[in-house]
Specification:
Elements lengths: L14 E9 L2 E9 L4 E4 L8 E5 L3 E4 L4 E3 L3 E6 L2 E3 L9 E4 L7 E9 L2 E12 L3 E4 L17 E3 L11 E2 L2 E2 L16
Parallel strand pairs: 4-11
Antiparallel strand pairs: 1-2, 3-6, 5-9, 7-8, 7-10, 10-11, 12-13, 14-15
Keywords: Disulfide bond, Glycoprotein, Immunoglobulin domain, Membrane, Repeat
GO molecular function, one term: cell-cell adhesion mediator activity
Pfam families: Ig_3
Length: about 190
């Protein structure tokens, strides 16, 4: 098949490998470098977010993505309590049906045969955004104008943006200002 398989690699296996394919019409070469990587976990390039927001009653995934080789084993704590629920293979922690009790300091621990590291972030719960007045179906005659309303409640500490789309495509009010008008009620 022209395949080279290597098992139980060590640092001595690193280097430039060359494949030579040859027949009666000629010879051709291809090169590839094999790097052997081994490093303890580190969060220097990808630390956990310091502040994680989660909507009340919603779902949140707190990511834990250290650089490490080989892949580390993960564990989590909330404050001083070790957690063992909903830890994904990539190290992320999932919390469903978020309540006030879920707020707090979360720490991800990553460990491999080269070392260990951890990173911490704070989870804060916000009020969920809800549509309180949804647009209604409208029948209009050609040439007439139509108005559609959308009103939402949201956590006062967060900004709210309304985005309108038509048949799955976001309406660009800058380009289509002759046809669409956005009215913002305070």
């Amino acid at each position: 098949k022209g395949e080279l398989r290597m098992q139980s690699l060590t640092f001595d296996d690193a280097g430039m490998y060359q494949c030579i394919a040859e027949n009666m019409h000629g010879i051709i070469y291809a090169n590839a470098e094999l790097k052997i990587v081994a490093s303890p976990p580190t969060f220097e390039l990808n630390p956990m977010k310091k502040k994680i927001l989660a909507a009340k009653g919603g779902r949140v995934i707190i990511e834990c993505k250290p650089k490490a080789a080989p892949k580390p084993k993960f564990s989590w704590s909330k404050g001083t309590e070790l957690l063992s629920i909903r830890i994904w293979d990539d190290g992320s922690l999932e919390i469903i049906n978020v309540t006030k009790l879920d707020e707090g300091r979360y720490t991800c621990f990553a460990e491999n045969n080269r070392g260990k590291a951890n990173s911490t972030g704070v989870l804060e719960m916000t009020e969920a955004t809800r549509i309180t007045l949804a647009p209604l179906n409208v029948d209009v005659t050609v040439g007439e104008n139509a108005t559609m309303q959308c009103i939402a409640s949201h956590d006062p500490t967060l900004d709210l943006t309304f985005i309108w789309s038509l048949n799955g495509f976001v309406i660009d009010f800058e380009k289509e200002h002759e046809h669409y008008e956005r009215n913002v009620m305070v």
